[in-house]
């Protein structure tokens, strides 16, 4: 018996013990036991190819599964015939090399061996990355969206690696490489990706990069691009991995959501700080805008907030602006320039999230923030208002004036928090009128007959965008009512970016928030004095009083639209005594309240 088998069996024993301690099955899974007993197999022959050994995880049948530990190392005693055959195969691989392909079934991106288990075991022991296999695919009995995305990738590339388990990841990877998944890749394109990926994997192992390699590869390309992989200076290359490692480490930590600013605390060292050399150094803040303030109402609001920030904090801050950053080339140039000359870089529109994330990884000593509800990257703090609180008040007020028990709700296409805004509006309306219906329409899906359709439904009260169109109608935003055919504004939400930016800057200046505390995300609302509802002075005092009472409940956290019993269009979301929805549940809603007539746009597309 050669030493290799003895060492391999020790690896098996180690894996078995570790699995048992974790409460996991210590041997190989069998595909026949994974599939439903009555499932009719219709294998799709894919041909002979090199497959990644890391994705070979089990056997086809249950007969030999206990012969190997869960890591495919041999578990049989050293004196058995099996051990002799394994050792002979190992010697053959070392002297001549195994050429005959194994037979495997691929199921949901994993391989199960029909013939060639010992060959797999030997190759895994030798840490060989791939093995030649004759592959047949078994389609899963139920739809699996992530696997279907992989199938699109496989149809174009014929590759099993890199493996991406994030929605949209394969499309994103192809785009970063400069390719698409609409047509088959050339052999040169496949070789190029494989070479880049294996170089990355070797470096990831060298620099102890944790986590799935495919996900890390996508993250690396997202931040540094192809030019980052082509770096020849080893010092620069290592720095890139160190920064990525830190970013991925933060991704694995839960991000804390700050619902309001921290209370200021008396600092006995304040007088000492005033005479320190850096005490009078201004906090340099760059604001990046999608458009120009004179052309866009949202940008105008952010610019007004910046001006208020400067007036309130004076010489403590120094701000700059970069306009028209909607264009990705302009945005990237602005991020680069701003990060060289500023302490804090704020991108004020959600479309800049990905590029801001890349800049945050590349410049770990700077503070980057993005205005959005996207909380998928803990390395990049985001900030936004809890608009659903204002929508809740507007819904209640709209129901007061909806004589037909119907309100039209016109929404932008959904992003993080948008569905919560719609549901909060509907819940607020139902609290005033239990028979009210919210007729939901999406701006991008409107046809020329929309207004006539609303008229036919006897609808006179509308909810629209949060801000007016600077180049168009200055009345049809917030909620408005048609009176004698003319729109009359009833109330509008108001975001006080001046308060928001002042409180953020003060937190940084006073040391309440570290430049590197990037796992903290800001989602402030009425209790932070950054969000309000402005009611028309022409409304009856009782309506204004209603809004104020509900507002006080939100401010003092005595009222929450997502507390208590909640019903969606398809059933009960939560009972009357269940805990209120968490911030993440609110941000990631994929359901509509039961008094909403309409559907989510992607549900409409699926129905068609």
What would the keywords be for this entry?
608 residues; alpha/beta; Conserved hypothetical protein from pyrococcus furiosus pfu- 392566-001, ParB domain; Rossmann fold; seven-stranded parallel sheet; 18% strand; disordered C terminus
Shape: elongated
- In total, the number of domains comes to 4
CATH T-level topology of the largest domain: Rossmann fold
Give the C-level CATH assignment of the largest domain: Alpha Beta
Q: What fraction, in percent, of the residue positions are helical?
A: 40-55%
- Report the sheet-strand fraction: 15-25%
Total of DSSP H or I helical runs spanning 4+ residues:
20
DSSP strand tally: 21
What would you say the CATH architecture of the largest domain is?
3-Layer(aba) Sandwich
CATH superfamily of the largest domain: Response regulator
Mean pLDDT, rounded to whole units?
Answer: 88
What is the CA-CA span between the terminal residues? 65 Å
- Give me the side-by-side strand order of the main sheet: 6-17-11-10-9-7-8
Low-confidence stretches: 271-278, 604-608
Structural class, please?
alpha/beta
C-alpha Rg (nearest Å): 30 Å
Major sheet attributes: 7 strands, parallel
Overview of the molecule:
The protein is an alpha/beta fold and about 600 residues long. It has 4 domains: about 1-140, Alpha-Beta Complex (Conserved hypothetical protein from pyrococcus furiosus pfu- 392566-001, ParB domain); about 145-250, no CATH class; about 270-385, 3-Layer(aba) Sandwich (Rossmann fold), CATH 3.40.50; about 385-495 and about 525-605, 3-Layer(aba) Sandwich (Rossmann fold). About 40% of the residues lie in helices and about 20% in strands. It contains 20 helices and 21 strands. The strands form 4 sheets. Strands 6-17-11-10-9-7-8 form a 7-stranded parallel beta sheet, with helices on both faces. A 7-stranded mixed beta sheet has the order 18-16-15-14-12-13-21. α3 packs across α4, α11 (about 295-315) crosses α17 and α14 (about 385-400) runs antiparallel to α18. The longest helix has 20 residues, at about 185-205. It is elongated.
